[in-house]
What we know:
Blueprint: H1 2-19, E1 24-27, H2 29-39, H3 41-62, E2 67-76, E3 82-86, E4 97-101, E5 106-119, H4 121-188, H5 194-229, E6 236-239, H6 243-249, H7 266-287, E7 292-305, E8 318-328, H8 336-402, H9 408-442
Amino acid sequence: MKIRIFAVLLLLPVLLKAQEQPQAYAFTLKEAIDHAIQYNYSAINANRDVEAAKKKKWETTTIGLPQINGNVSYQDNFRLQQSLIPAEFFGGQPGEFIPVTFGTKHNMNAVVTLSQLIFDGSYLVGLQSAKTYLKISENAKVKTNRELREIVTTTYGNVLLADESILIFDRNKAALEKTLSDTREIYKNGFAEEESVEQLQITLATVNSALENVKRQKRIALDMLKLVLGINLEDQLTLKDKLDFLTQTNMDLAILKEQFEVKNNIDYQIGQNTLTSSELLLKLEKSRALPSLGAQVNFGANTFGNRFTMFNSDQLWFNYSNVGLGLTVPIFSSLGRSARTQQAKIAVEQSKTRLTELEQTLKLQFEKAKSDYEFSMEQLGTSKNSMNLAERIESKNQIKFKEGLTSSFDLTDAQRQLYSAQQSYLQAMVDVITKRAALEKLLSKN
Length: 446
């Protein structure tokens, strides 16, 4: 047995070290969204908020259920209070008084109380408020999940954008290095100017700088995605989907024809919950003018003695019991209740106004999101055509430059135009994905 324990102690550091090793993950966009909904830090706390709201609802419910409380009290009268009585009661002279002591040194009392709330208007409102609070927490969880879908989609797309940018910059760098090498040879043979070599060196340095910057941006974007997914930054993360695949799958003209039902939007539902809360607050203030009625039954026993013998078997305990009702009737509050009720009415009207404003705002946001998505698809086609044209222009300038028919400045301008067109095309692909996600969030699509 000792040998086994010793072996476990020897292996314990190895096991702990193995647990600390980074994990490896590989996700498609859908898998990444599902993982974030389960493991994202905000999503985890949103689930906890729902559980806490359920417990709060039960806590409120128990206020109207029978309550049993026990109480034990002990009193040590180490110096009993004295009273004066006329001495003539004991045969003394009239006008004189004798000090006497009443009571015992040790007193103990034990009582069990059963209480039951019979009617209280604020309790009924409290039950409704607890249900609304639970609904608010559930809606907040839904809102968190839908926002996570959009955030994961955007962050996932940014990582893919960085990946594609690195590939393009690598190709551009390789092509530029070959052009620079050829130009140097031509310059050595006296068929090119030194200025052409220097111009290409400047362009190559710019491409190298941009490439290193994109690599840094990719690391940051990947860490941001890890954070959203709820995994450690030290873990390995691989993206299964490619940018062009996601772009094609997110191009859908049918979604532009869908009708916007504002009542299905989670923000509108949260606004309705806020209005309901204001209305319940008004009911609560009104209920304070109603009487409250409760009942209780007490079962108790007490004992006394000049010596502490309370737990002896022969100690005498004197039982007692009673039943009672308590009725509280609000009569006059110097118009304080009326002032609070009027404030609650104003709060209800404010909530109604905010809900109307929210409805109009959401409709406007939907029209803008639909327009942005439609434009992103149009821009994708435009940027692709522009990139193809820029590639042809750059290729022609490459040929003219090698043949000495154009200057290095013209070639550099064509290259910069091509690089800009390439980045615009990649960004247009990402925009299709992210604009679709924003539109789906408003449409409350899962």
